[in-house]
Amino acid sequence: MSSSAASGASLPHDDLLEHLSRTTVLGPAEASRVVADVLAYFAETTEEYVRRRHGELQARGLTNDRIFERITAELPLRRVRAPELSARQLRRLVYG
Questions:
Q1: How many domains in the chain?
Q2: What pTM was estimated for this model as a whole?
Q3: pLDDT in tens, 13-56
Q4: Angstrom distance (rounded) from CA 64 to CA 92
Q5: Residue 7 CB neighbours (<10 A)
């Protein structure tokens, strides 16, 4: 029994953690880490997402023109739709 269950408190997403542990090869600790990673990913603001993706794509050797084109295509696919941003607005998010 988990400490939260023993105390009567329920952690957010306990049902999801139990489901993942039951239906995958993930143990409880691994399932908890995966859920935390996914929630953190979706909690990113548009600005944080743009900066992170810019760094990732730049590390792959893409030019800014290609990077901003790709980020522009990715933003509408985010869980919470981001506003449409021009290449200039994207640059300002990255470089200030």
A1: 2
A2: 0.62
A3: 899 999 999 999 999 999 999 999 988 888 888 999 999 999 99
A4: 12
A5: 8
Range of the domain at 36: 12-43
Let me know if residue 5 belongs to a domain.
no
What's the distance, CA 30 to chain centroid?
Answer: 17
Q: For residues 67 and 54, is the Cβ–Cβ distance under 8 A?
A: yes
**How far apart (Å, rounded) are the C-alpha atoms in residues 69 and 59?**
16
> 52 and 91 in one domain?
yes
Per-residue pLDDT tens over the stretch 64-92: 999 999 999 999 888 766 778 899 999 99
Residues 52 and 65 both lie in one domain: yes
